[in-house]
Each structure stands twice: as structure tokens, then as C-alpha cells.
Amino acid sequence: MAQIKLDELAHAYYPNPTTPADYALKPMDYLWDDGGAYALLGPSGCGKTTLLNIISGLLKPSAGRIQFDGTDVTGMSPEQRNIAQVFQFPVIYDTMTVAQNLAFPLLNRGVDKSEVDKRVIDMLETLDLSAKANRRAQGLTADEKQKISLGRGLVRYDVNAILFDEPLTVIDPQMKWQLRTKLKELHQRFEHTMIYVTHDQTEALTFADKVVVMYEGEVVQIGTPEELFERPGHTFVGYFIGSPGMNILPCNIEGNAAIVEGHRIPLASHYTPPQNAKLELGVRPEFVRFAASTEYGVPVSIDSVDNVGRHRIAKVRLAEHSLNILLTEGQEIPGYNISIVCDPVLSSVYANDHRLEGEPVNRHQSGTAI
Ligand code: ATP
To answer: Model pTM?
Structure first.
């Protein structure tokens, strides 16, 4: 297991990059913890596979370095880096049995035969493949073959990291859930550094301790699932994570209030945004509610109310802006004088798409702010 450091790392697939758009990965500096479970999450083309392949050694970055536990591995092959990688489609030997497939990476590295047997039996049980241990891989289903692929990565306890590139794409939905849970269990048991690429937020949020959200070749936030949900660091994170995503409204800021279309929305902190920045208020549908008749709220009109499984979503209109509100079970929708209230603590302010940190209001008022 290793701590992984990305040191001014960047990649362009074509020579002489000049503008930021020429980079598949824009320059980045990060330190990822030894034994952490990370998910790289983002839409197609944002650079997830490029970053994963640089970490594994399949691709050499055009700038910067990568270190494992302080050792520069930029020029090393995947074998020298001692990495296990599981791809989207199964990589197994069809003519070998299931058990032989699992044993192969260990025998190849000279692990003692009795240790190999022990680990293979353990992995067969873990993946519910014991009954098929002596079957040739050839006749197995796509799910089973991919389970063997996962097993071939996980059976190597001494690796620096295990990298997964959308490994559950070919797995049926029911089995996906089971395998994700299994991966999490295995992570807790062996404490491997794991990096898991996906464009599926459910997969990322259920697997990872820390989710690395990527957008247009940049890491826009690294955070726990709670942090990404409650304090999205970038408007893209707000929009991409959550269903539906965060409401984002153009605004002005006056101290501890956002002004949206002339209406004052109280905030929990005091903000001093940079001059001439594009300012937006972000608040998730879960943190907006209809105001009680005695309360001051921002007047809106209702466009629609939709059932989405266990919840209902009200779509409301504030001038030309549309907002979603997640309704709690049995919640009444007001018939007239409809207005909304945003939770001030869970509302965020963005300047040029990046979240601003505010100052506590009382500190600001008492003049002790730095
Ligand atoms: P997906 O989820 O579709 O696999 P991704 O987030 O993994 O996408 P990458 O495959 O890393 O994204 O691609 C990042 C950018 O680099 C994209 O614009 C892609 O077109 C480009 N790219 C990827 N591989 C190459 C290549 N071999 N040559 C040139 N450009 C490439």
C-alpha cells in the first residue's frame, strides 16, 4: 500500500500544448492517503481514465511527476510500480479454471504454494465462486468472468494500489450492489489504497471514503460524500451530484444575504466576494422549503409537482429561474401566497463557479475579522 502524490502533474495527448483546452489533464497537485478508498467521478471525457493510466504507469504524463511513498515512479512500468488494475471488461484466461485464474498472479510473483492455496480459497468464498472453482472460465457468464477479474486484483495483498476502471459496467444491477459492498468490505479488511473510476455517482458515493470529482480535465473537489452533498466546492459538483442536482441562481451579495431578482435570501455567513466575479447562490432541493404563512419567504409560482419514487419534487419559478424543491412525505403544498425559504447554513455562494468561504456573522460584526 502506498501514499500517492501527484506533483504538478499534467497531460496533453498532442505535442506543444498552449491553451488549457489542449490538456486532457490540467496541472494538478494532490496527496492521496495510504490505504484510502478513492473514487474518480466525472462525465465522459473529463480525464478519469487518463489520470488512472498515469497512476498505473500505462501512460507517461507530459508534465510533472508521480510518487509512491516519496519514491518517484514516473518512469516506472505498471509491474515495477506493483499495481493491480481491473478493467471495464474481464481480463482472464479462458482456458484456465476459475481457481487457476485466481492463483496465476500469485504464482507469477513467486508466492509460496500453500499461501497461494489459502488465498485462492478465501477469494473464491469472498466472491461466491467456490462451487465453480474447477470450471474453465470459458463457459462462465460475463458477471462471473468479471468477478474473477476483480479477484485477480484483490488476491494480491502486497500491491501498492488497486485501480479499477469502471469495473462493474458489465455486471447486472443486483450483482453490482453486492460487489460494491464486497469491495468495501475487502478495503476495510486489507486497507489497500484503492482508486475506482466511474461516471456513476451512486457507485462513487457508496464505494469511496473520498470522492475526487473531475470536470474538463480538472479535479474540482475531493471530499467525503457528505462534504460533496452539503458543501459542493464547485457549481459542477452541485449539479452533477444529487438527483435532481443543486439549484443555482445568479445573485448579488450584500454581507450575509444573497439578493436574487431583488429578493433578500439570508445566509449563515458574511461574504466579501471578489470584484466583477460571476456570483451564484447554490442550494440543493433538499434544503429549500415552502415558507409558513407567518414567515418571510421569496415569492414563487409553482410550475409542476412530480412523483419520483418515494418523493415528490415541486418545480417552482422565481422570475425566469426554475428551482426544484424536494417535498417531505405528506407535505402540503400551499394554495396561495406561495413563497420559499432556503436553509441558510446549507446554502453556498459561488464566485466564478468556485465556492466562497464566508466569515461567521458575529465575528464580522464585532470587527475582529482578519
Ligand atoms: P470516459 O468516461 O468516456 O472513459 P474519461 O473521463 O475517462 O472518459 P479520458 O478517456 O481520460 O476521459 O479522456 C480525456 C480527454 O482526452 C478526452 O477529451 C479524450 O477525447 C482525450 N483522449 C483520451 N485518450 C486519448 C488518446 N489516446 N489520444 C488523444 N486524445 C485522447
So the answer is: 0.90
Q: Is 42 in the pocket of ligand 1 (CB under 6 A)?
A: yes
Pocket test for ligand 1, best of 11, 46, 197, 213 (most atoms within 8 A of CB): 46
Tell me if 25 CB under 6 Å of ligand 1: no
Inform me whether the pLDDT recorded for 370 exceeds 60. Answer: no
Confidence label for 77 from pLDDT (cuts 50, 70 and 90): very high
**Cβ neighbour number for residue 58 with a 10 Å cutoff:** 15
For the chain, domains (ranges, CATH) are 4-14+22-235 (3.40.50.300), 249-369 (2.40.50.140)
Give the separation between CA 353 and CA 302, rounded to whole angstroms. Answer: 27
Mean pLDDT of 141-160: 89
Cis peptide before 244 (omega within 30 of 0): yes
Q: Are 262 and 299 in contact (CB under 8 A)?
A: no
Q: Quick one: CA dihedral 186, 188, 193, 199, positive or negative?
A: positive
Nearest-CA residue for ligand 1 atom 11 is 47
Give mean pLDDT, residues 54-82: 95
- 3-class secondary structure, 29: strand
For the Cβ of 201 lying below 6 angstroms from any atom of ligand 1, the answer is no
Q: Atom 9 (ligand 1): residue with closest C-alpha?
A: 47
pLDDT tens, position by position, 272-315: 999 999 999 999 999 999 998 888 899 999 999 999 888 899 99
* Atom of ligand 1 minimally distant from the CA of 13: 29
Q: What is the mean pLDDT of the chain?
A: 92
